[in-house]
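re the bet — no i am not wrong, look at it urself. input seq straight from the record:
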Amino acid sequence: MSAKTKAQLLTEIKALQKRLTELRAVKTEPHQNNDIYKKQAHKLGERVKELDCLYGLSSLVETPGISLAEILQGCAELLPPTCQYPQITCARITLGSREYKTGNFRETKRKLAGEIKVEGKRAGSVEVFYLEEQPKSDRGPFLKEEGALIDAVAERLGMIIQRFQAQEKVEHLTLVLRAIRNVNQLIIREKNRDVLIQEICDNLTGTRGYSTAWIMLLDKHGKYLDSAESGLGKGFTPLLKELKQGKFPACVRLAQPRSKPVKIDDPSSTCADCTITDIYSDKGRMTIRLEHAEKVYGIISVSFGVDIIIDEEELSLLEEVAGDITFALFNIELEGKKEQAVKELKNSEQYIANVFDAIQNGISVLDTELVITGTNKWMEELYSDKMPLTGKKCYQVYQGRKSICPWCPSIQTLEDGKQHLAVVPYPNEEKPIGWIELSSYPLIDTNGKITGVIESAKDITEQMQAEQALKESENYLKTIFETTSLPTVIIEEDTTISMPNRAFEKISGYSKEELEGKMSWTEFVGADDLKRMKDYHQQRRIDPGAAIKQYEFQFINREGNARNILLSVNMIPGTKKSVASFFDITERMQSEQEIKMQLALSRQASTETNLDDLLFFIAGQIVKVITPAETTSIFLYDEERKVVKVQAWAGFTDSEIKRLEFTIEDSQAGRILRTKKPTLVKDVSKSPNFKLMNGPNIRKIKSQIAVPLLYNKRVIGIIFADNLTKVDAFSQKDLDLLESIGNQLAGVIENARLLDQVREKEEQYHSVVEDSPGLIDRFTPDGTIPGKSSIASLTKESPIITLFLSNSCRSIPHADSQ
């Protein structure tokens, strides 16, 4: 349906109304059918409705000052009367995210819709709904004419919207261009940064080109620096708080990584987390970063009415104004630097002169020929007898020489353009009374050419003397450190050993070259102590006063041997280093263990009545007391069978050693029985006496110590202690300790055997008493018979007893020593 003018629509409506009146007035004969006339009248009525709708829409558009929203709302109200059942009809027109509906609107499945297009693109829709069920017609319950009307209305609305948007676009761009012109004039005029960004925001909104505008400046780290706004008022306060905290809204986060503007048409969805979204609810926005010469100065964001269509032209205008603003900020920054530079330049000569004279070192300026062109007061006072200094060769004035000094650092600086240093005698090489540290620095012009040298002279006489004294002191202390018999090291913060003495080299098994700066003290600590000592190391560097300064730990040397150490450690004042001394308490602890072992053996022997249980207890204690011992076994000698048989063990499984016995011929046991001497075998594999011990149930051992159990110079058994993992595991002290245990154990074993014999005799004694027909009694050494007063009393009463006692009484040992 082509668009018609308002006059054309009015003429067509009048013609249709006249024809409709004529049809309604037609009278037909009774025999004639009136259906044809009724249908024509109905169609004409519907056509009139359609034309009334289009006419009403044209009238709305021509209403002076009417807005697009008012036209769309009015059009929605015009639609229900055009349908067959206006009382149950509602309508809705959508444009983008906005809706314009009748008061009775309710969306149902009975719908007729037409698409609104602007410049060939879908912009919205026109929809009518029946609120109740109606008979089916051409398009559901709707007539095809109604469908054509909806399409015509949608088409006309598309043209109206396009016209309105074009008009608004022109007006908006006019306002934007006016704002940009004002901004450009402002940029030329205003040199105060804070005033500039505020007036830019005011101009962008003051011309009504944009609804709101705000600028945020960033520092070189991308953090909030300053801001200005217009059109937001108090609504900007919550956003400002978040900007200062570094919580940037979505528009800023989107714009920061891009050089082009970011357009947001629907802030309510894109910027839901923004504190000013409510203010922007009916507006779109554009945001762009302010960048010049790869430096981001900040962000500018403006908002616009949703009726405004932002195209590439508008985006380009914002990009252009952003570039102008950034360039202005760059110029302000540059001007500030220039002003600062001018100010500094004005003060530079006086400043340099003051600094020159305030320096507590001597300063001389030389040209390329080593001629003095300037000095400070320090040099003038030091060489007051040589004044004036300027205009003379430096080596002539300062050293009294006719040629360049052989140590001269300035010559090297003139050659390579680098700083050089030399220590020179004062006042001259022949009769020095002090020393000067002379540094030379190149003077380079803007073309990179060396035009002279600056010499700095520092009196280091006292320093040299102090260094000499310190060196002598260090040598003295180092000698003490190296020659002390106590192992001592200097430890760095990272646990590295920076200085070991000779005693530490000996105890560790490493040379100074292997230790110094290469190894950590943690490599010498047993696993059970390592974490605790690391904690002490850290705590000592945090709070030296609270850290433990002396404690024991297990020291592991290069060979893997463990030593018990009492460590004394403290911080070196003024450094993160510590000094640690190692006192070997292994022998002391072994002595303590030996005493404890002997006491335990004595206590156990006095309380334990079973010899096997006692021997197993002793075997377990040996493994605990003699550190290298991983297994131990106790064998007793059977004189009748000429074998040694295992009685107790520790570290072995029962299947490995139970019932094991050896003949005394051609074996380690036999050698011990014959020699009656302890043995220390460093490497079992090299000992011929062990060939008989490699049975299927015995694990191979690496090294061994063994001692005979001697009682009255007679061997009653042997104790073996074994190491299964390494050769040369035992020391002579380990053997001595085992021998001490063996000596004590031999007596315990023999006493236990005697005790068994006494018990056996006592049983025999009781048997004789029970079986004897005569009188047999027991008496104590003092002559007292239990239950009797004395032997004498018995003889007076009974001559028979006296005779028995004189002929048959003999001493019988008893468990109670009676």
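see?? The mean pLDDT is 80. told u. also The two ends are 143 Å apart (CA to CA). so pay up
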